[in-house]
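[step 3/7] fold_predict: job queued, chain A
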Amino acid sequence: MTRPEEKKRPTHLGFLTALGDPARGVIGGFLVLNLVGRPTEFHCTAPVRPNRAQEILYGATLEGFLCGEQIAQALVGRTKTELAAILTNNPNILTAGNALKAPLAMVFRRSDVCVAPGDEEKYAVWEKKTGRNGGEAPEASRRRIDDENWAPEENSEDEANFRRRSFFYDAFERTPPTPGVDYSAWRTVAKGRNRLALPTDFVGPDGRAIGVDEISARLDLFFKSIDSVEPFERIRLAIEEAQKSG
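[step 4/7] structure written:
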């Protein structure tokens, strides 16, 4: 039975990403799913390329400007659906921050453990103790990376290609710094097989502050049916199809 407080929570979740690079053009994709993982909206952009003046003037902040201010705000602005949160796997989108109409969270690449249902709190304690860099996971939560979740050797050319293709990272410690984003203002939490970074607070368009605990509770409704990583593959494939037909 659904609890009364759950009925009041938004029942749609957004997935937002940007693929490509400024030289070839950055393409944004935004997918909205309901509680059971069915799509209710999909939007994408044409390739966004900066002009030479923008490349010079924005410098190291260029990708954050393109992804966070131009692409993210334009795509999310198209939906009238109330969203529980918006997930991204591209750190450059984090520059959008409170400019979006729902809390923005970062999805990390699958870790080498699978957290059993009900074991999330224990995993979070272990993660904090080990600094997310070592140690053994709690009992019943261990799983080695399989072929599906293959990770290339650190600092190799394969790793660079892998990251350009997927934009998934293990944690903020391994994520290239994005100018204008304060990573210390985010809290990493375990959600099923994956990890997310949630903002410690979010101020919505109505001026109401939403804390990290409420954001986390909102997301729990969806992760009964949705994997936080898989929808990004849907977006990538949909963008590829749109480019073929366009």
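[step 5/7] annotate
Strands lie at 12-21, 25-34, 39-44, 85-88, 104-107, 186-191, 194-199, 201-203, 209-211.
The radius of gyration is 18 Å.
exit 0
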